[in-house]
Amino acid sequence: MTNQEIQPGLFGQKHSSRDYTKAECWGKNQFNSSFPASLVAYMYSKNVEPIYIKTNKTNETVHSTIGSDELLGIDPLSDDAYYNYEAGFSPYEMFYQGEREKIDLVMMNNKTDALLSGLEVKLTALPDNTTKNLTESEWGTEIVMRPPTICFLVCSICANYESPKEKEKLRKMLRNVPQINHWEEINEVLPNYGKMPTTRHLPCPELSRTYF
């Protein structure tokens, strides 16, 4: 019986765009998206469903669960699952003009190359530094939003208004959005915040699936 060398890797990721034999694939920016994906796969192997936080039509926060296979669009342990990191997501590209953004994780079918889901991934701690001394019911976590994430949220909204009637409804709502040239500048966004349509007027259950 011979000893086989065990190659570096992450649980469940049989096929991935990252080569975990290379040191750079274990850096912070890569690990922040690779590890949560494997954690979801591990939870699936243990029949534990991830927590699914979303808003309902009255803009109330709802805590539920979601199957890992539903979240990723495929059995995460399947030989057909391909974890494609920092990749383009063509279903959203129709909404872009100019340079296309890359999304953190695109799940694909390894045999057909079909795109199954596009996910922005955030790895954070609970509690964070500002809530660590509070009671557990008051713990909170910091989530840093990068500009492309906002683009993907907008694309997700557009993708869920498909029929001509729904598109016209979306156009009417967006006419109320003020002209803002620099969405990353709080001094431009904050004075106009109250003029914007809220999630109360943009029911879109798929938005929550942009994250895990």
Task: Describe the protein's architecture and organization.
With 212 residues, the protein is an alpha+beta fold. It is 26% helix and 15% strand. The chain has helices at 28-45, 68-72, 90-93, 147-159, 164-174, 186-189, and strands spanning 15-16, 51-55, 61-65, 81-87, 103-109, 115-119. The chain is globular, with a radius of gyration of 19 Å. It starts with 14 loop residues before the first strand and ends in a 23-residue tail after the last helix. Residues 199-212 have low confidence and may be disordered.
Short characterization:
By secondary structure, this protein is an alpha+beta fold.
Layout: helices, strands, pairs:
Layout: E1 15-16, H1 28-45, E2 51-55, E3 61-65, H2 68-72, E4 81-87, H3 90-93, E5 103-109, E6 115-119, H4 147-159, H5 164-174, H6 186-189
Parallel strand pairs: 1-4
Antiparallel strand pairs: 2-3, 4-5, 5-6
Along the chain, the helix and strand elements come as: EHEEHEHEEHHH
Q: Supply Rg.
A: 19 Å
Q: From the helix content, strand content and strand pairing, which structural class follows?
A: alpha+beta
End-to-end separation: 42 Å
Helix % is 25-40%
Unreliable runs: 199-212
Determine the mean pLDDT: 84
Quantity of strands, as a count: 6
| Main sheet properties | 4 strands, mixed
Helix tally equals 6
What is the molecular shape?
globular
**Strand ordering within the main sheet:** 1-4-5-6
Strand content: 5-15%
